[in-house]
Design brief:
six-stranded antiparallel β-sheet, single chain, 8 strands
Amino acid sequence: MASIFQDLLSKMSSSQAFTKSSDNATEWLKNNVVKQSATINTKNIIGQMRERHVTKVSAGKMYLFGYDAKTKDTLPYYDMYPLIFPFKKAQDGFYGINMHYLPYRQRALLMDALYPFISDDNNDEMSRLRISYSILKKFSRSNLIKPCIKRYLNKHIKTKISLVLPNEWNHALFLPLHRFEGASTKQVYKDSLQK
């Protein structure tokens, strides 16, 4: 079964978007995602990605999963469906960059800044970002990355963990897969930009 990211890529390729410029392709993607956003159910998408389910995460790859924060009663808000690049193991979990904490334009800027850290040009299951905490501390886009760094506990992952392939990363960034508990998306974005 094709993932939602592959479906979007196929539709985008068959449109005129790719024959013009990358700006037009990005605009096409944003417009078509907006049309689909009312029908997107992230939990169902994770369930449909059966062939991509993994039991553990690896640093530098992108994953989507359901999450129930341990400290949700004291957090101002959290993302129930993180889209993350893990970068460091932690006791009973890991640290990751959750791209959902940024508005779409800033996600694209951050992703552009992360691409030089990709391990190879194959864009296959073996490709990953070569990132670590020490690299991120020196990162030129640290103002964008700060609000995205989160810790995740393995016991609080509530769905299967789905791998997003490198050739789908840009498409996944523009899908409204997030679901913030405790605050509106607008408020989360505002707080992130202030950080």
